[in-house]
Amino acid sequence: MAPALLPSVRARARDFPRRVHAVKRAGTMSDTAFDSDLLRLLSTRGHLHQITDPGALDQLATREIVTGYVGFDPTAPSLHIGNLASIMLLRRLQQAGHRPIVIMGGGTAKVGDPSGKDETRQLLTEERLASNIASIKGSFEQILRFDDSDTGALLIDNDDWLSKLGYIEMLRTVGPHFTLNRMLTFDSVKLRLEREQPLSFLEFNYMIMQAYDFLVLARDYNCRLQLGGSDQWGNIVNGIELNRRIDGREVYGFTAPLITRADGAKMGKSVDGAIWLNEDALPAYDFWQYWRNTDDRDVGKFLRLFTDLPLDEIARLEALEGAEINEAKIVLANEVTGMVRGLDAAKAAEATARDTFAGGGAGEDLPTLALGEDGIRIGAVLTQLGFTASNGEAKRKLAEGAVKLDGETISDPGRVITASEGASLKLSLGKKRHAILTR
């Protein structure tokens, strides 16, 4: 079996990044170790996990504008806050006076990144990928500056070059620089094999395609840096090595740590599902409320990672204790929502929260549902609003006494809510989910 090959090549693979470049981790250097504004900013805000050849990249960033990129596969119509950490890397790059490139993986998404997956991704049609890319663009335009200046962001689809490659051309150009021995040691491949889950030959090519992206970007845009999450380390190193082998060009890699919450959960998920960046995927109020409900222990970290507040102000806010820490959480919610959704959305969400919780009213920004002439069963209402994933879950929440209509607990799953009960009814699931039912 293929996994049996792994122990014989692990030792060589482990030192591969060190043979390519010196590697530094966040815990092995101080913030004062850097001369460039770029690495100082990334380090002090908590974005640093690993860098290839940090000394050379640091000096390069002090001498000239560095172009760097992050890739995003458009597998859904919206990105989520797990992707926001990578978008912030590009924002910091631009804030430090350098040029960010957003790579939309219209080409690589046709294959699918196997990293962290136990199953093969469902292949999307070209029409669906194009629709997803169009839907996602707005999030980048909200967070990055796109203009014709030397540091203006670019958004590029890697399908522009990947789909034009002939199969034989790709094999001859890139194939000789990848060995199966080393490819089998990368986590995206190794973990799938160790779990005895199928890994298609299509997915096996993903790392080669991503490495080729770095080669094209270095040639056509003088892109010298790839950034990403720590799970992309192997793919980034492949691109660095390919550039060195084919063009003799020195390029660099930077990864951010995997961001988890204090409770150990992966960033980007909640009990109600993914926290989407697009308004049409998740209302601004729910987006704001996610950040407002941040664990006390995460407030300082999230303020550094996801806002532009000065560090001394963040230090003041994270030092608050007891009920006062809620002030910091509101600041966090306003800052992130303002950046991702716009200032008006942040103000409206805060006002809705204030009206709902402090004033006991029903804020205008809450999700609404029209009851219609015949009314709707309470379980269907909860599911249509997205408060529950199914009618079965709705019944459980009703049985637990977690559902209230205008402050009155509802437990009967057969209860039909009709328009005759009022022009505007406030429905609540627990203390954090609220909606308005209208005629």
Task: Give the tags.
439 residues; alpha/beta; Rossmann fold; Tyrosyl-Transfer RNA Synthetase; Structural Genomics Hypothetical 15.5 Kd Protein In mrcA-pckA Intergenic Region, Chain A; 3 domains; seven-stranded mixed β-sheet; five-stranded mixed β-sheet; globular; disordered N terminus
CATH superfamily membership of the largest domain, which one? Answer: HUPs
Terminal CA distance = 64 Å
The number of E-state strands comes to: 16
Tally of structural domains: 3
| Global mean pLDDT | 83
* The CATH architecture of the largest domain: 3-Layer(aba) Sandwich
Beta-strand proportion: 5-15%
User: How would you classify the helix and strand content by structural class?
Assistant: alpha/beta
Q: Percent range for helical residues?
A: 40-55%
Main beta-sheet annotation: 7 strands, mixed
* CATH-derived topology of the largest domain: Rossmann fold
Principal-axes geometry comes out as globular
Number of helices: 20
Write out the strand line-up for the largest beta sheet, numbering strands in chain order.
1-2-7-6-3-4-5
Low-confidence stretches: 1-19
